[in-house]
Every structure is written in structure tokens, then in C-alpha cells.
Amino acid sequence: MNQSHVLRFLCDQDALAENTNRRFWLDKLPVLLCLHQGEFIAFVDQCPHQMKSLEGGVMRANKLYCPVHGASFELPHGRHLSPPACRGLLPMTVIKKDGKVFVEVKTE
Ligand code: FES
């Protein structure tokens, strides 16, 4: 089976304030877009603990905290740092182009 990637539009670059994040839906795929230290970072928006959204999670000192039970993940890669989650987030590639933010999504 061949896989390729397509760019999917999320928002304009000025849509997020520094140290905020927002959930987007790409068909049935939830995407969390974060703006932290001037960088856009995206993950599949499912906390590995109970598959809840991370939207609204505090971002501080290169960490993202799950707003539900407080698991923490390293930014920008999403590596797991503390329980109750036991693994990291699934990162997505972010592309900025012409003032807009896109993510790469796999196709089959
Ligand atoms: S759902 Fe994220 S820590 Fe529980």
C-alpha cells in the first residue's frame, strides 16, 4: 500500500496567541495546534491517558499539561514526561506558507 501526504489548511498564522492552543477537525482527525515560543506545533489531539482533548492545556517552559488530569508532555516533540499518561503524543508536521498554517496528513 502506498502512502503519501497532503497539506491541510488549519488557520491563518495570526489566529493563535502565544502560549495558546486550539483543536481543529480534519474530517474525523482531531488536531491540536499550539503556538509556543513563536513556533507552531501540532499533535493528534488525543491524550494517551483517556483519549481526551488537550485543548486549553497550559504550556509552560517547554511543557504541555493535559487539562483533564495533568499529564505532561515535552514541547515541541510531545515526549511523555509524567503520569497518568504512559506514552507521548503523536506529532504532526506543520508548514507555514503565505501567512497560513497547514499540517501534513497521510493519505492511502
Ligand atoms: S486524559 Fe490526559 S491525563 Fe488523563
From TrEMBL:
Q: Quote the Gene3D superfamilies the UniProt record gives.
A: Rieske [2Fe-2S] iron-sulphur domain
Keyword annotations for this protein, in alphabetical order, are: 2Fe-2S, Iron, Iron-sulfur, Metal-binding
Entry's transmembrane regions: none
Q: Which Pfam families is this protein grouped with?
A: Rieske
Instruction: Extract the SUPFAM superfamilies matched here.
Output: ISP domain
Domain Rieske per the UniProt entry, residue ranges? 8-103
Its source organism is Shewanella corallii
Give the top-rank taxon of the lineage listed in the UniProt record for this protein.
Bacteria
Know the name of this protein? Rieske 2Fe-2S domain-containing protein
